[in-house]
Write a structure and sequence with these properties.
This protein is mainly alpha-helical and about 575 residues long. The protein has two domains: about 290 residues, no CATH class; about 140 residues, Rossmann fold (3-Layer(aba) Sandwich). About 50% of the residues lie in helices and about 5% in strands. The chain is built from 26 helices and ten strands. The strands form two sheets. Strands 1, 2, 3, 4 and 5 form a five-stranded parallel sheet that branches. The longest helix has about 40 residues. The two termini are about 50 Å apart. GO terms for molecular function: glycosyltransferase activity. Belongs to the glycosyltransferase GT106 family. Keywords: Carbohydrate metabolism, Fucose metabolism, Glycosyltransferase, Membrane, Transferase, Transmembrane, Transmembrane helix. One of its GO terms (biological process) is fucose metabolic process. This is O-fucosyltransferase family protein.
Length: about 575
């Protein structure tokens, strides 16, 4: 099979031929004695040769200049590394602004001003000022017509089995893509399997996290979904899934690859596996296939009853505890967990004890990965580039600077916070009404979910989805899916604060900064998050580069409009989104 650009799981072999340098030997030198005609001809050549030589020299010089042009950024970066790297102490360079963690010193310097500042308090109900301007758009097609045109007889070509890997939202991405691929191949989708990973250590299956029956019924008429393979196919493969043909698909493979390479195999075999299956489909797909992603993500994937029941309780408890702000609260996705801090290779204020502890965590979790000779660890540069997880203290200072006061309730979506006794205490000073799923639920309520990371993440996801303000601090699948889901639910606005960490670390490295100056910068940062919250990427035909899960509009607009109309007539429809009723 020939590999296709950008999508094939096969590698093409290098072939000989034109374009490369020849390996044949150079011709032998001419003899010294030559005829007069030859000498005469050689006398008239220099002018031509000289011209060619000048052109050759010009080309060589141009190439050298181009080489130096590309070399300049390398020299610059090398110089930057020298400034912030291990040699900085030896050669006496001043550390780059923002390269050191001094947030705790800034906090102590400004604590009195923070506690006594009652000016410009912002109300949660009026945080988001930008409104999405609705342009005149084509009317949404009737879903019945969509059925007739693209999904007449789903599942004629065979069965598709996929193995979703990663955490909750990477699995969610895989599921949505699997439905899209099944629609593309006209295949019957077997309920996706979840890979057990040594990092996550979560044995949850699809039905533990999502409502299987709702998933199947919602997709009925678009993509046929079954819970298991027919007995005849299982018997043919000796009841062993590993005997089924597994196709290794490259990440972000285009539609052409699935139709040209995968589809013939499916039709021949009758059943195929694609494992692993994370990000194995390009974002640019035909509109009716993109619709399947929208339908799956925002309607078909409903959390299981056990998760939804507790998540529902947590949301209502947060609303009750936020009576000072009319039931509205902030949710923060805090990634200041031990493994995240270790993986980032960032340095905080724990001194030598912290360094030894982090070295031990890295060795335990990733073996010798961080000790390889080709791996250069530069904590200072990581911080300057905004790659370090924000501490609870930094999040608190940012939010107080934006104008949120101590009466604001905050929900923390996180695993176990690294050295919570040291890093969480300053946040609690600024925001005493601080809650987690552990503080909102009883131990008996949480007991069935302990150790199941994806199910615990689903609880956090639901509470964050229902918040008036969501704060992301470190990126990843969780905030990206959540921002997209919030855009889908809240009229196209993500209602999300995305900190400019490169700017923030510089401000929190300036020991002379005033509270007023810091507040001005934070208010600008909030305004920028407000503006970006309504952004819609330009999508021309099917040429999409951004994630439809983060930016669901415009492709998911018709589904959004359809469900919004249902919500107007029946508030219980919101249950379809996240397991919580409106």
């Amino acid at each position: 099979m020939k590999s296709k650009a950008g999508g094939s799981g096969l590698t093409s072999e290098a072939t000989g031929g034109g374009g490369g340098s020849s390996s044949s030997p150079s011709p032998p030198p001419s003899p010294r004695r030559q005829s007069g005609v030859t000498r005469c001809r050689r006398r008239v050549r220099p002018a031509k040769d000289s011209s060619e030589s000048r052109r050759l020299v010009a080309v060589i010089m141009a190439r050298r200049s181009l080489r130096y042009f590309f070399l300049l950024p390398v020299v610059y970066i090398s110089g930057l590394l020298m400034c912030v790297g291990p040699f900085s102490a030896l050669i006496g360079h001043t550390p780059l602004p923002g390269s050191r963690y001094r947030s705790h010193e800034i906090f102590h310097n400004l604590l009195h001003h923070i506690e006594t500042d009652n000016s410009s308090v912002i109300e949660l109900a009026s945080v988001w000022k930008y409104k999405r301007k609705l342009r005149e758009q084509k009317p949404c097609p009737n879903l019945t017509a969509l059925h007739r045109e693209h999904f007449v007889s789903p599942g004629l070509n065979g069965f598709l089995i996929v193995e979703a890997n990663g955490g909750l939202n990477q699995q969610r991405s895989a599921i949505c893509n699997a439905v899209a691929v099944a629609g593309l191949l006209n295949a019957i989708l077997v309920i996706p399997q979840f890979e057990f990973h040594n990092v996550w250590k979560d044995p949850s299956e699809f039905g533990d996290v999502y409502d299987e029956d709702h998933f199947i019924s919602t997709l009925d008429g678009y993509v046929k979904v079954v819970k298991e393979l027919p007995e005849a196919l299982m018997e043919r493969h000796n009841y062993n899934m590993s005997n089924i043909t597994n196709i290794k698909v490259q990440a972000w493979s285009p539609v052409s690859y699935y139709l040209g390479v995968v589809s013939p195999i499916l039709q021949k075999e009758g059943v195929i596996r694609i494992a692993p299956f994370a990000n194995r489909l390009a974002m640019s797909v035909p509109p009716h296939i993109q619709f399947l992603r929208c339908l799956t993500n925002y309607k078909a994937l409903r959390f299981s009853f056990s998760i939804s029941a507790l998540a529902n309780k947590l949301v209502y408890r947060m609303i009750e505890k936020s009576s000072r702000t009319d039931g509205k609260y902030i949710a923060v996705h805090l990634r200041f967990e031990e493994d995240m801090v270790a993986f980032s290779c960032c340095v905080y204020d724990g001194g030598e004890a912290e360094k030894l502890e982090m070295d031990s965590v890295r060795e335990k979790g990733w073996k010798g990965k961080f000790k390889r000779k080709d791996r250069i660890i530069l904590p200072d540069l990581n911080r300057v580039e905004g790659k370090c997880p924000l501490t609870p203290l930094e999040v608190g200072m940012m939010l107080r600077g934006m104008g949120f006061d101590s009466n604001t309730s905050i929900y923390i979506a996180s695993g176990k916070i690294y050295h919570a006794e040291r890093y969480l205490a300053p946040l609690m000073k600024m925001f005493p009404y601080l809650y987690t799923k552990e503080s909102l639920a009883t131990s008996d309520e949480l007991a069935p979910f302990m150790g199941y990371s994806s199910q615990l993440a689903a609880l956090d996801y639901t509470v964050c989805l229902s918040s008036e303000v969501f704060v992301t601090t470190q990126g990843g699948n969780f905030p990206h899916f959540l921002m997209g889901h919030r855009r889908f639910l809240y009229g196209g606005h993500a209602k999300t604060i995305i900190p400019d960490k490169r700017k923030l670390v510089v401000l929190l490295d300036d020991l002379s900064i005033s509270w007023r100056a810091f507040k001005d910068q934070m208010e600008d940062m909030l305004s920028e998050s407000d503006r970006k919250g309504i952004m819609v990427p330009r999508v021309r035909k099917i040429n999409r580069k951004t994630s439809v899960y983060t930016y669901p509009l415009p492709e998911c607009r018709c589904l959004q409009q359809s469900l919004a109309n249902q919500i107007d007539n029946n508030n219980d429809v919101l249950y379809n989104y996240n397991g919580t009723k409106a």
